[in-house]
Amino acid sequence: MNDTRTRPGDEVVALVSGIVEGAFAGLKPLLAAAETLLAEPGPTVGADLEQLRPKVVEQLDGLVVGAGFIAAPGLLADQEFGFEWWTTAGGGAPRQLFISLDPTSEYFLDYTRQSWFTVPRDTVRRHITGPYVDYLCTDEYTLTFTIPVRGATGFAGVVGADVFVREFEHATLPKLHALAVEERGQAALVNAQGRVVVSTSARQATGSLVRELDIPAWWTTGEESTTRPGTTLRRCGDAPIALLVTAR
Amino acid sequence: MVKRMSHGARAALFAPLDQTGRAEAVTRRLVDAISLGLLADAEQLPTETELAAQFGVSTVTVREALVALRQLGLVETRRGRGGGSFVRAPADSPVAPWRERLRAVSLSDLRDVGDQYSAIAGAAAKLAAERSSAEDLARLELATEDIRDATGPAASRAERHFHLEVAAAAQSPRLTHQELLLQGEQGGLLWLPITHGPSSAYPAHRAIVTAIGLGDGELARKLTEEHILDAIDRLVVLHLELIDP
User: Is residue A202 part of a domain?
Assistant: First the structure.
């Protein structure tokens, strides 16, 4: 882009883009470790995933409160499902997450239905899931960043990092608020589905869907920004998050 | 080799308890866990000290609960090397302890459980209708299909999972948490394998998801409340059968 003029919202866009790219970049060493582990000769078993532990725990820093590797079904030689996931949710030292991996169990919840798993699997691209209620892990309102992992025979699972929506809000709301004041309106960050992540307005609260604009349809056009009377929608770099500014 | 505890709801199972009726509450939670297969047959329980820490109660309370569980024949304690408390899952009928609980419950308590469940699940359904994206709806559809041909514990799991998905689609961690708590307590009675079958649950779930998909919050709430009332109705009938001399 040759246009160097500043536009309202530049700071917010740069901030969000920085957070998102930072989270994905932070996952790279874990991704490399997972792909190295899977490339070793012979079958991989559930216990082998422990080797990823140092790289997993290393992720738990700053905004990231959960991280790990989730195996595709059938990847491991000795069990259908498996993962190495650690969390600092609730404070304190990192703890390993255990959930039922037995499909016949009363308490089994099938993680292969979750968007943080299905989207990277189906698109072979990185993905941000959420905001959503993470009832599998922390029961918190969460953004989950996932990258597909390649194995010998294709998709082998995902590596991912969790960021709580409230922490993402703490990091972005001051600049969002400043923008809203400057524009004499309201400002919000929305995902590609039109779901509000952070907002300066209680009437367009976190978790609600923006109905005034068809954001999912706009997203598929690939446009960088769109303006209508009283409304501006603009992508935050390559992040699947857009900045929405509306007149009061 | 003793089976390791390997179940997801372990966090909920060992969540700290209120200070009232602690031994009873510990007993009940462990009875539920054993009868639902959350704790497997022959599985070793954590030590008394560990259990006390996990439940947030004293070791005396845990000991009391273990005595009760031994009397129920659900736990066996072995002394010495390799000793400890081991689960003895009832081989005949896994729902027997539930029947006992359902027999002991009062209808006024049952009504109250239904009221609370309705308040939570109804509100969640209304918000889900307002806030569900296409992705949420796709997951609700999958959860609805789960119950179509399910029986026994699978039907029970599908019921609980369905209501969990609705609460998640409402985008509310608190309602989701309430839903989980209710399912772990008396509310768990609602979705017993013995109280319902796919014949009634499937069309009810389908109708709720359709209302959510249409964005009709009031209808989604009403249908959810009716679905819960139906479950309470069946529990009342069962309770009356059970107390029949």
Answer: yes
Quick one: pLDDT at residue B22?
A: 77
Tell me the per-residue pLDDT of B152-190, one tens digit each, with 9 for 90 and over. Answer: 777 888 888 899 999 999 999 999 989 988 887 777 788
Using CB atoms, pick whichever of B139, B157, B173 lies closest to residue A106: B157
Kindly tell me if the per-residue pLDDT of B19 is higher than 70: no
Q: State the Cα angle at A222 between A220 and A224, rounded to 5°.
A: 135
Q: With a threshold of 0.80, does the pTM exceed it?
A: no
For residue B12, the model assigns a pLDDT of: 44
Domain count, chain A: 2
Q: Which helix (H) or strand (E) holds A122?
A: helix A115-123
* Residue B87 pLDDT class (50, 70, 90 cuts): confident
Closest by Cβ to A139, choosing from B6, B10, B176: B176
Residue B14 has pLDDT above 70, yes or no: no
Q: Which domains does chain B have, with CATH numbers?
A: 10-93 (1.10.10.10), 97-243 (1.20.120.530)
Q: What is the mean pLDDT of residues A125-154?
A: 93
Secondary structure of residue B120 in the 3-state scheme: helix
Q: Measured between CA atoms, how close is A202 to chain B, in angstroms?
A: 15
Instruction: Measure in Å the smallest separation between the Cα of B49 and chain A Cα atoms.
Output: 20
pLDDT at B91: 57
Q: What is the CATH number of the domain that holds A220?
A: 3.30.450
Which residue, among B4, B133, B141, B146, would best test binding to A if mutated, counting the most A CBs under 10 Å from its CB?
B133
Residues in chain B, how many? 245
- Half-sphere exposure at residue A180, Cβ-oriented, CA atoms within 13 angstroms: 19
Q: Looking at per-residue confidence, does A81 or B21 come out higher?
A: A81
Q: Where are the alpha helices (DSSP H) in chain B?
A: 10-13, 22-35, 48-55, 59-71, 96-104, 107-131, 134-146, 152-169, 173-184, 198-213, 217-243
Of A121-130, B14-23, B72-81, the range with the highest mean pLDDT is A121-130
Kindly list the residues from chain B whose CB atom is less than 8 angstroms away from the CB atom of residue A206: 171
Query: Residues A103, A175: one domain?
Result: no
Inside any domain, residue A3: no
Query: Is residue A159 located within the same domain as residue A171?
Result: no
| Structure ipTM | 0.77
Residues A157 and A173 in one domain: no
Residues of B in contact with A193 (CB under 8 A): 133-135
Range of the domain at A182: 167-247
Nearest to B203, CA basis, from B185, B230, B176, B179: B230
Q: What is the CATH number of the domain that holds A117?
A: 3.30.450.20
d(CA B214, CA B211): 5
Say yes or no: A64 and A118 in one domain: yes
Asked if residue A35 and residue A154 are part of one domain, the reply reads yes
